[in-house]
Design a protein that fits this description.
InterPro entries: GEMIN4 (IPR033265)
Biased composition (Basic and acidic residues): 599-610
Helix content: 55-70%
Distance between the termini: 114 Å
Region (Disordered): 595-630, 999-1039
Protein name: Gem nuclear organelle associated protein 4
Largest sheet: 2 strands, parallel
Organism: Stegastes partitus (bicolor damselfish)
Structural class: mainly alpha
Shape: elongated
Number of strands: 2
Length: 1148
């Protein structure tokens, strides 16, 4: 159904057809169009708008013009193909309008294109055709253009179609308009198939090898057709502008067809200058700057710098150059190449100058392309002469024009706008003087959302801030816009931008002095961001946690982009001083790897060689850890240097760094998992400088050790082929420092001089040994993998260790490997049969004759493997009682000397060795009856080890607390001894408990409810006396209860409950005796051990009611209370006596 516009168009064509009488539109000549075409042009003007033909059309007008050209062309093709109407009305979407028009010929089509300035539309339709058909249509266009009467506007039409073909389709106008071109292409293909005269086989060959066939056709070379046509038209060109245009287009076609094979990339700044000159020349011809004007200039520029889609098949470069030079010489001879108004060159002259420069440059770079030298020089001489003839004055384009051009490109998202945005953002001169620059930036933030564009903009802002004469309000506005642009980036781009900002300045926009108003605004934003994060992180539901984390990371990233150092400082402050915030802060930073800073790696072996030239001092002085560390490390260093941390804050600091050293999923572009903070950086920044500065009051050596332990525990090892990260941390000097510190712990109870700092306690010795051993294992593995590279470092360390205690070498055994013998005091070799090929003796003054067992015990405490060696090679003849007796006495003395200087793990090893010696009968410990009137009739053989060990420790503590040894230890030393003894007591309680598992609550309940409450006699052994229940009761038990009761009854028949109570009573008395002996008598660990013994005593009495009669329990309470009365601390005494009062037999 036709609409009003279609009816207007139909009426206009019918009127024009009548004006042709006695002929018709299907047979008119070119000269007739001026007489009959007026109604059609009026109709087009009415449909497309009054000013469409002379102004800029709107999209609807363009669409209608395209539709009219399409319908007229299809009408013409349908007549030539003799299309069947019955088929057309079904398959042709334009059938209604097309069928309503009278028959036309090509004169109507081409004159309509020329009169309506539709060369671009015509060219777009041409591109939709197969190349052979397109060449045929071009030849018909040329035939029409060259027919009489031929005028300049015909040549203009030809040149416009040519250039539009080279420019290709306007991708910026894609959308609904493409539907018409697609339908046109489909209809042309349908009509071509109807009139094809090829056989089915030939048609198939055409389809399979279209390129070969089209290349073989005589008229398939588009450039050849166009250049030859221009040559034929040369006499009809009579204006300088048309000559310039023709030469420029032909040179561009030659350049893009022969001289380039890929797009020529022009720097954006140069491109901007060219565009500005183009616009300046066009503005002088009253062409107002507009998006359409710039879009066309960009299309012209692009078409001049990309390879043509119409590659020549028969024409050669030399032939094309010959035609162009002949044209230039011909028009020059007619004085058509002379500039009119040289001070104000035209756009076509400027374009020709650009084209000539491009071709000449390309010919100079590829001289072999032209052919013979004489021809080459002739061509170049002609082109240079033409360029000299033009001699255009320098076209000045103001910065104002440049800003207008780029602003328009960015605002309307024209071609290559993103690269223009980078240039726009980086021009500080524009930002300083033009309000339009800031306005464009604010309104087109999306165009700047690339990290490289953002960094250019940031550099401009920093220059503006640091200029000293900047407008504060503009700076604040620009900073907000920049931060908003950053906030809209993806997480990956945010991290790239953060990394780039760190490269510019660790303080971001505030690297130099900035106005206080700007600083205050940022401080408010920073505080608000972290307040929101801390408040929002508390009590967040699991479902919202990830969303909260993403929001928090975005907030931190925004302020970090403005000032990375300030944001990191706030992160560190929150992580350390806000309880529980360390985890959230670590997760936030792990999402922002852009804040890590640059990373590098040195050759570990080479660097250690250099460091050992000056000894371990290079670790402290040569590292320059602060300058080489990341921004986060520097912030943390400043914080712990300027503030004294509490124990809780230190713990948060350790956990914070531990989380940051954990590997997280690799960011885009990274091959493997990365940690935010590398362990080697932590060691170099926090551990090495602190441990090297021993003796300074500000050094927290224990914190440094904890950091080193955390770093060594981080699972960040790279591929197996790469060296361990420890090699970046001066491993051999570090091992020596740790060995020195371990040496100090051996004298930890000595009072240091007044000016010295007490660095270590026994509590930290455990950690030190762990770190030393772990580091030794890592370094040892690297040494074993490449011994030759590390031999000098190995001997350096071994020689240094000679100054220290002999036991330290055993902690570094993984480093030595098989390179050195085990060196021990010579006195040890007297009590231990060790192979000479692996062991050698040292004459050490503290280890004179008779100290072999002391050295032996020290070896037993160092490691499990060394303990096993010591036990298996102990030189002791058990068949000689006097040898065993002497060994036992010597061991008692050695243990007394060793105990106070043991760490918990060393003490645990010694306890295992003592148990092994007792159970193997090599260590004789007589059991005395100090705490019983007589030994009850009990089987204590299975508890022999626990009882003897307890007596042995009692004898050791009696010696230690005696007058000869009481001044060995400080208050801290006695507290440590108490903790070690309590550890041994708990170990013995656990051993006793394992030999009498308490029955389950269900069995206990059944037992209590069903067994008779018969008190045992004083002389009886309830553990061997069966508990008898009445046969009647057993017969009436249900199956489940029966099995439980029988199981429990079986336990009570064999359970050594009385023996356990006896052993526990002995342990309690020993503990109480020692607590009374120890200086001060207020050792809390011993008090807690006493409570634990009493609790288990009570539990055994409850689980086994017949284990103790009421009289026995009463005697026990009285006896325990008497022992406890000796305690000096009244509070401890009261608590223990209250607990003792609860020891009431369940049989009562």
């Amino acid at each position: 159904m036709m609409n009003q516009d279609s009816a207007v168009l139909q009426g206009a064509f019918l009127l024009s057809d009548k004006l042709c009488l006695p002929t018709s539109l299907s047979s008119i000549q070119k000269a007739d169009w001026s007489r009959v075409g007026h109604p059609v042009l009026e109709a087009v003007r009415e449909i497309c708008g009054q000013d469409e033909l002379c102004g800029r059309p709107n999209p609807t007008a363009v669409n209608w013009k395209k539709k009219i050209i399409c319908v007229v062309w299809l009408k013409l093709l349908a007549r030539e193909a003799e299309e069947d109407v019955e088929v057309a009305w079904r398959e042709n979407p334009f059938f209604s309008l097309q069928n309503s028009l009278p028959e036309v010929n090509r004169v109507v089509l081409l004159e309509l294109v020329k009169s309506t300035a539709a060369a671009d539309i015509f060219a777009n339709f041409l591109v939709c055709l197969p190349q052979p058909q397109m060449c045929s249509e071009l030849e018909k266009l040329i035939e029409h253009v060259t027919s009489n009467p031929m005028k300049e506007d015909d040549v203009q039409l030809f040149l416009e179609v040519w250039w539009e073909l080279w420019k290709g389709r306007d991708h910026k106008k894609e959308g609904g308009e493409d539907d018409i071109e697609m339908m046109f292409a489909n209809q042309c293909a349908r009509l071509s198939s109807k009139c094809a005269s090829l056989s089915p086989q030939a048609a198939k060959r055409l389809k399979l090898d279209t390129l070969d066939l089209s290349a073989s056709l005589p008229n398939a070379d588009v450039l050849h057709i166009l250049l030859c046509a221009l040559k034929d038209m040369k006499d009809h060109v009579s204006s300088a502008d048309l000559c310039f245009q023709a030469l420029s287009i032909s040179l561009n076609a030659l350049y893009t067809s022969f001289l380039i094979d890929q797009e020529v990339v022009v720097p954006t700044k140069e491109k901007m200058h060219i565009l500005s000159k183009v616009i300046s020349t066009r503005e002088k011809k009253s062409q107002e700057l507009s998006p359409e004007l710039i879009r066309e200039a960009l299309r012209d520029f692009r078409a001049s710098h990309i390879p043509s889609q119409f590659q020549p098949s028969r024409m050669k470069l030399s032939e094309a150059l010959k035609i162009i030079t002949e044209l230039a010489q011909f028009w020059q001879s007619r004085e058509l190449l002379t500039l009119q108004g040289a001070s104000n060159p035209s756009y076509t002259a400027f374009q020709l100058e650009q084209s000539l420069q491009r071709v000449l440059t390309a010919l100079d770079q590829t001289p072999e392309a032209v052919g013979e030298n004489d021809d080459q020089e002739t061509v170049k001489k002609t082109l240079r002469g033409l360029l000299k003839l033009l001699a255009l004055p320098a076209i000045e384009s103001s910065s104002e024009v440049s800003v207008k051009v780029i602003t328009t490109i960015i605002t309307h998202r024209l071609e290559d706008y993103e690269n223009f945005a980078v240039l726009f953002a980086s021009e500080a001169s524009w930002a300083a003087c033009d309000e339009r620059w800031l306005d464009c930036l604010e309104k087109n933030q999306a165009a700047f959302r690339r990290h490289d564009t953002l960094i250019s903009l940031s550099s401009t802002l920093m220059s503006k801030l640091h200029s000293g004469s900047s407008n504060v309000s503009q700076c604040r506005k620009l900073m907000k816009i920049t931060a908003d642009i950053f906030s809209a980036l993806s997480l990956d781009d945010k991290n790239r931008a953060l990394a780039a900002m760190l490269g510019l300045s660790s303080r971001g926009f505030f690297g130099c002095a900035v106005p206080s108003a700007v600083t205050d605004g940022f401080e408010q934003e920073l505080n608000m961001a972290f307040n929101c994060i801390i408040q929002g992180g508390a009590g967040a539901s699991a479902a919202a946690s990830q969303g909260n984390l993403n929001t928090a990371a975005s907030l931190v990233a925004r302020v970090a982009f403005q000032n990375p150092e300030a944001a990191l400082r706030s992160c560190c402050h929150s992580a350390i001083f806000n309880k529980g915030a360390f985890s959230l802060m670590a997760k936030i930073l792990q999402q922002l790897p852009g804040l890590r800073g640059q990373r590098g790696r040195e050759d570990g072996a080479q660097r250690n060689e250099e460091e050992m030239q000056d000894g371990e001092e290079s670790t402290a002085e040569g590292k320059d850890a602060v300058s080489s560390s990341s921004p986060l490390s520097r912030c943390l260093q400043d914080m712990i240097r300027t503030k004294s941390l509490s124990a809780n804050e230190k713990e948060q600091f350790l956990k914070f760094l531990g989380l940051l050293m954990m590997p997280v999923a690799a960011a885009q572009g990274e091959e493997k998992e990365q940690s935010f903070l590398q362990p080697q950086e932590v060691v170099n920044a926090f551990v090495l400088p602190n441990l090297s500065a021993m003796g300074h009051c500000s050094v927290d050596a224990e914190l440094s050790l904890q950091l080193l332990h955390t770093a060594l525990s981080a699972d960040v090892q790279g591929p197996a082929s790469s060296p361990h990260w420890v090699l970046d941390c001066s491993p051999f000097p570090l091992l020596y420092i740790l060995a020195q510190l371990h040496n100090q712990t051996l004298r930890c109870y000595e009072q240091p001089p007044e000016s010295a700092v007490h660095l270590f306690s026994m509590e930290s010795k455990e950690l030190l040994v762990t770190v030393l051993t772990t580091l030794g294992q890592v370094v040892g593995a690297e040494v074993a993998a490449d011994p030759s590279s590390w031999s000098r470092a190995l001997f350096w360390l071994y020689n240094k260790i000679e100054e220290l205690d002999w036991t330290i070498r055993f902690h570094l055994k993984p480093v030595w490997g098989q390179h050195f013998k085990n060196e021990v005091p010579s006195s040890l070799l007297a009590v231990c049969d060790l192979p000479e090929q692996e062991w050698s003796g040292l004459d050490l003054p503290p280890y004179s004759q008779g100290t072999g067992l002391l050295a032996w015990m020290e070896c037993c405490s160092i490691s499990d493997s060394l303990q096993s060696t010591m036990l298996s090679h102990l030189s002791l003849d058990q068949h000689k009682p006097e040898h065993v007796s002497m060994f036992s006495k010597g061991l008692l003395v050695a243990l007394t000397q060793t105990l106070p200087w043991c760490s918990v793990s060393q003490w645990s090893r010694l306890l295992r060795a003592l148990k092994e010696l007792i159970t193997s009968s090599r260590l004789h410990v007589p059991f005395s009856l100090e705490y019983v009137d007589y030994l009850p009739l009990l089987d204590l053989r299975r508890f022999s080890c626990e009882l003897r060990l307890s007596v042995l420790l009692l004898r050791v503590l009696q010696l230690l607390c005696g007058s000869s040894c009481s001044d060995w230890l400080s208050v801290d030393g006695w507290a440590h001894v108490g903790r070690l003894y309590s550890h041994a007591v708990r170990d013995m309680i656990s051993s006793v408990r394992a030999k009498l598992p308490l029955p389950s609550s269900g069995a206990s309940a059944v037992s209590v409810s069903t067994s008779p409450k018969r008190p045992a006699s004083r002389g009886s052994n309830p553990s061997l006396t069966p508990v008898k229940a009445s046969k009647m009761s057993e017969d009436h038990l249900e199956d489940g209860g029966d099995s439980i009761l029988k199981s429990h009854m079986e336990e009570e028949r064999t359970a050594p409950c009385q023996e356990v109570l006896f052993v526990l009573s002995q342990l309690f008395c020993h503990v109480q005796h020692i607590q009374v002996m120890m200086p001060g008598g207020q050792c809390e660990p011993l008090f807690l051990s006493s409570l634990e013994i009493l609790s288990h005593y009570e539990a055994v009495m409850a689980a086994f009611p017949d284990s103790c009669s009421p009289l026995e329990s009463d005697n026990t309470r009285h006896f325990f209370s008497t022992i406890t009365d000796n305690l000096e601390n009244q509070e401890m005494k009261a608590v223990l006596q209250q607990k003792i009062a609860q020891l009431v037999s369940s049989a009562a």
